[in-house]
Specification:
6-stranded parallel β-sheet, Glycosyl transferase family 1, alpha/beta, 7-stranded parallel β-sheet, Rossmann fold, 426 residues, single chain, glycosyltransferase activity, Glyco_trans_1
Length: 426
């Protein structure tokens, strides 16, 4: 029986680093086990903000990867301000009151001249190449994944012209994601974003989202079927790790300026003052980008002497830190718009079997998952007393060599189980 072919149109692909690449790299790994042959279509010369060469080894052998050249405006923007173009491409936007004229100008151009995003010029040339590819390879379905949401416009054009079966995967929302409001959009530009979002959601045959909050949001825009397929974890080959001797609280990934849980820094400062043993044992590991704003907060709360700032490491290295840390820290911006964000690292945290301390908005989807799986505790940004009591409880368990977690029901978040869910849509 011949395998059904699906074309996956993505922007992030090894050697890109970060969580965006993991989702489809893992789906591609497991799809052949369900009699589906994935063909991957990605940019040839992308301007990835993070590079992780180790992920190249994870691309399954025998998978067809087709690359199409892309013109990246961030390279041109770099002529004006290399640092600002790079940080904006990562989604790092300076607080409004601290923005330079150059940054304000770049945000205005990004928001109003590149709709829906800076990769929009890849749509037309990719459409022409894929049109030929579909008939040549006898591909029955296409799948677009965003952000960047401009990739959904490729799916839109293919659907309109060829009536191909099209699934649109949203790893993040479109017009309600936090940074969207910071793009200095004109009214006409904001309207255009909404129109494109509505058109994509009402034209795709099926829609995939990564959270229940996004599913509810999109159900107000379209009657098309919307499936929640979260991110997940895979079997990682790492050597046996020994738990840290220090009371390590580790954050893996970017800790941007708006993800700054001052309530936690206040709790840790106070516990240090009240408990000399706690002060001697505490170590804060930051594995990934740490914004200057957060670093200043740590200094203001007298925590700098506890900080181990490691910067970006390979995915394999990050897994080691997760497994040997005493506690794992998950932070989200305190906003109504971020309730739908379920970071990909949550699932790696869960399978690392270390207690998770999550701090985010009220009603955050993460709280449902950590509660159901018994993998950690969620707090809001004003939960000082509850957070302090929990950290102290964890610390006492650490001192008694008894800091453990007993997860339940993790199997449904395994990448293979999630791929099985995907195959039902394809």
């Amino acid at each position: 029986m011949s395998k059904k072919k699906v074309l996956i149109i993505a922007y992030y692909w090894p050697p890109a680093g970060g969580p965006g690449v993991q989702r489809w790299l893992k789906f591609v790994k497991y799809l052949p086990e369900f009699n589906i042959e994935p063909i991957v279509f990605v940019p040839e010369n992308p301007n990835y903000p993070l590079i992780d060469e180790s992920l190249i080894a994870e691309i399954p052998t025998g998978i067809t990867v087709i690359k199409q050249p892309i013109k990246e405006p961030y390279k041109l923007a770099g002529l004006f301000s290399k640092n600002k173009s790079k940080t904006i491409s990562k989604g790092i936007i300076t607080e409004k009151e601290n923005q330079s004229f150059i940054e304000k100008l770049m945000l205005f151009i990004r928001g109003n001249f590149f709709i829906p995003d800076a990769r929009k010029n890849w749509v037309s040339p990719s459409f022409e190449v894929i049109k030929v590819l579909l008939s040549k390879e006898n591909i029955e379905s296409i799948l677009t994944t965003g952000p960047p949401h401009s990739l959904h416009l490729i799916g839109l054009k293919l659907k309109q012209e060829l009536d191909v079966n099209w699934i649109a995967d949203f790893r993040d929302p479109w017009t309600t994601i936090g940074y969207h409001k910071q793009l200095k959009l004109l009214k006409s530009s904001a309207k255009k974003h909404k129109q494109l979002e509505r058109q994509v959601l009402n034209t795709a045959d099926k829609i995939i989202v990564t959270s229940f909050t996004t599913q509810k949001e999109f159900q107000n825009i379209t009657q098309k079927p919307i499936e929640v397929i979260t991110n997940g974890y895979d079997d990682e080959k790492t050597e046996t790790t020994v738990l840290d001797s220090k009371f390590t609280i580790s954050h893996i990934g970017s800790l941007l300026s708006k993800r700054n849980p001052e309530v936690l820094w206040q709790v840790l400062r106070d516990l240090k003052k009240e408990n000399e043993s706690f002060s001697n044992d505490l170590q804060l590991n930051f594995v990934g980008l740490l914004s200057e704003n957060v670093a200043h907060s740590l200094e203001n709360y007298s925590l700098s002497n506890c900080v181990n700032n490691l910067g970006y490491v390979s995915h394999n290295e990050s897994i080691k830190f997760q497994k040997k840390s005493q506690l794992l820290l998950l932070i989200e911006i305190n906003s109504e718009d971020t309730k739908c964000i379920i970071p990909g690292k949550l699932f790696e945290y869960m399978v690392a079997q270390r207690p998770i301390v999550a701090i985010g908005p009220k009603g955050w989807d993460v709280e449902t998952i950590t509660t159901q799986t018994n993998t950690g505790t969620c707090f809001n940004y004003n939960d000082y007393d509850a957070l302090k009591a929990t950290i102290l409880e964890y610390y006492k368990a650490y001192k008694n060599n008894d800091l453990t977690v007993q997860p339940i029901g993790l199997q449904k978040y395994h990448r293979k189980a999630l791929t099985k869910q995907l195959t039902r849509l394809i």
